[in-house]
Amino acid sequence: MSVGTAKEITAGGVPLTYLDIGAGPAILMLHGAGGLPVGAPFLSGLAAHGRVIAPTHPGFGHAVLPDWIDSVDDLAYIYLDLLDALDLRDVTVIGTSLGGWLAAEIAVKSTARIARIVLGDAVGIKVSDRYTRDIVDIFATDPDELLALTFHDRSKAPNVMTLPDEALEIVAHNREASALYLWEPYAHNPKLPRRLHRIDVPVLVLWGEHDGLVTPAYGKAYADLIPGARFELIAGAAHVPQIEQPEAFVASVARFMAES
Amino acid sequence: MRTWYFSENAYPYLPDPATFPSIRVSLPNGVYDPKIGAELYHRYLDEWQTAEDEGLDLMLNEHHQTATNLNPSAAVVLGALARMTKKSRILVLGNPIGNRRDPVRVAEEMAMVDNYSRGRLEVGFVRGVPYELSPANSNPVRTADRLWEAHDLILKAWTTHDGPFNFEGRYFHYRQVNIWPRPYQQPRPPVWVTASTPAQVSKIAEHGHVAATFLTGYEASKAIFETYRKQRAADGAPMHEDRLAYACLVYVGDTDEEGFEGARKLMWYLSANKVAPQFKNPPGYASIKSAMALLRGAPTAFDRKSSLEQCIEMGIVFAGNPDTVYRQIARHYEHVGGYGHLLMMGQAGFLEHDETVRGIHNFAREVYPRLKELGLPAAAR
After folding, report:
1. Cβ of A57 under 8 Å from any chain B Cβ?
2. Which of B171, B278, B287 to mutate to test the interface with A (most CBs of A within 10 A)?
3. What DSSP string runs through A102-147?
4. How many helices (H) and strands (E) does chain B have?
5. Which of these, A67, A92, A145, B32, has the minimum number of CB atoms within 10 Å of its CB?
6. Which pLDDT belongs to residue B381?
7. pTM for the predicted model, two decimal places
8. ipTM of the complex
């Protein structure tokens, strides 16, 4: 299966790059803080079920970051413009982690072009009291410990120490962009829980059973705030089930697409 | 050359470093004993007083959530120094205005201290070290943009005297800025800004502020200072070496061995700075190139565990008897193309009060008179 074609488009005045993989019903894949994993099996797996549009968010990888952009809210409007620019309809929007927050922010604004939404180990809301951190502070956690919380099977985690320059440069950009979008309020929009009721398309909340960054309980609370949302666990995975269990992840998405 | 006595006011009485991951950000303050700390605060003020008595100017800074520096509010210390000293100039280097939420408050505090001191204040602005971002909860991305926007606002607040002005910037918003008091010095106190790379220094030069660099040794200091001079030349602006400052560790003994011994104690400042990797390299703080090196575990100046001899060779410590120290400083001065200010860290770690005072005396009496002539035209020497 091809890793897809790298394409460029300007949406909302912002030059975007995206991977275009496969054909069929549109799937907008929004990556998380780790960036777009070009060539990952779950991307080609999804492409067996539709045309996957997988943009790199501004600031991640080599994507242009205009100086006015600094929030997930900014990204949400840019991707609504992207759906318009590509004239996509009945789109399945999938977002993981930071991308899940982004998918939710898009959906509370408009589902005019959206058929369904998948939130994978998403951040974006706060459910506990002010003294309780719902989301591990990734910027204040030892790097080794962070990997242990992110991956159920540590052997699947990348080792930055051995990455070639080109790949490490992308990691450095991804880290910087993540800080820009996640820093404060930390990885959430305090208003989002009050807006999730607006989502009027089917929603699947998918969660790694062993997610150490944002627990399945948080995922259930997220699903409870969205009318009719379904919550599913993926076994043998932590924060990135799409990487650790790509077949199970794709199967859940495909089932949801077929049913809704 | 002008010399500013500088102390970080550390609290060195800590548990074995093997028992904690980071002296910055996360070390519980339960290990701080207020009875000991209060004595230290007074002792460090006394040492600044000694420096003034010996004819030096004074410098202080601020850090947060760290045992390496007990001054999370430089303004509080400035208030004490402004009242107790009489003649020295007082430099705060500096206010971390990229991390502070309220730049107008900084403008007010500095204006107050300028009045308290009857115009002896010099105001530094810093982006701050990377481990300051978590304590401030300040986004590591675009810190320089925030610093310069806050800088513009503070300078306008100091120099506007006809009632409120409006400031609706990218990062800071005020609609009625009209500070009381206004600064004592007219039009405003001198401004300093720190730089650790040549890229950061051009904007400082454009403003004509003093550029200060810390522990950058021979080559990096030279590159930074050269960039400053080139920018001034490109702008057709006058250049004087009083626009450039260098900070490092200095200890002067009667003998080389006594000087070296004091400097080894000062080097606690380097060796004690155990920082967890997540606080050392917050994403967005360093350039992509530097961040990549840090991700691969590249050592910083603090990690190298260099010997005193190596530190002297690198130009980050000046130590020995008065002749030795003078030669070291003169060699550094010549190598980097000259600078007008030496920021002398003369106390750190377990360097006791009497040792600190002796180091100040020796420097002020035996080295400083010669140092003052560095950079002066031959006819004036």
Report:
1. no
2. B278
3. HHHHHHHH--TTEEEEEEES--B---S-TTS-SS--GGGS-HHHHH
4. 15, 11
5. A67
6. 44
7. 0.96
8. 0.95
